[in-house]
Amino acid sequence: xxxxxxxxxxxxxxxxxxxxxxxxxxxxxxxxxxxxxxxxxxxxxxxxxxxxxxxxxxxxxxxxxxxxxxxxxxxxxxxxxxxxxxxxxxxxxxxxxxxxxxxxxxxxxxxxxxxxxxxxxxxxxxxxxxxxxxxxxxxxxxxxxxxxxxxxxxxxxxxxxxxxxxxxxxxxxxxxxxxxxxxxxxxxxxxxxxxxxxxxxxxxxxxxxxxxxxxxxxxxxxxxxxxxxxxxxxxxxxxxxxxxxxxxxxxx
Length: 252
Hints:
The protein is an alpha+beta fold. The chain contains 9 helices and 10 strands. It has helices at 3-13, 21-39, 47-58, 63-74, 106-119, 150-160, 182-191, 214-229, 244-251; strands at residues 83-90, 96-103, 123-124, 134-143, 164-166, 172-177, 198-205, 209-210, 233-238, 240-241. The strands form 3 sheets. The protein has a 4-stranded antiparallel sheet. Strands 5-6-4-7 form a 4-stranded antiparallel sheet. Strands 8-10 form a two-stranded parallel sheet. α2 (21-39) packs parallel to α4 (63-74). The protein starts with a helix and ends with a helix.
């Protein structure tokens, strides 16, 4: 598991809130709007929308907010002109970073993203400067409890169409699959009694940069944390490895 994957897992495990609740609501609503706009407003027929709704509910977003976001996405409400953008750059220690955004004002978003890169020792680059270092893959995260049987779960996951399973997390399991199989694998695991915490297409680094300085690690984590706190930012991906204790210490 890459350093960034561990970072994301630790944040989920500790239930870290990286933005004010109002900003979290707005971030989740944007994801729902875009999903509904691209694939329709029926969650049963739109996997991306279904996942966006599940994430929003896990963050405590009220049902009324979710319904309004779906209406905006399908054109039933006042439609915001949101677009999806990806920014690329380098963080402290030469770490490659991809920032996926949903915005109705690309100038504002670009300025905010560039500001954080500069503030925390990074550089915002041109399109294509680091995306060749990443490959899309499906990632399904499930809870791990005391009754977890690694051998039987691995068999179920492989039969469901997964490529691999990472069970090194203390209380979470990471199932890996092809990007186009996320929905099928999650559905098969759910039928087997395994409800996912999240299921999405992630960007997996093809190579990683090892961070050996605690100060560099702290600066990098500050950059990632602040980027993720931006209302326009949906996901941040990076290709680093570092002492897991440094990540835990930063979040405590």
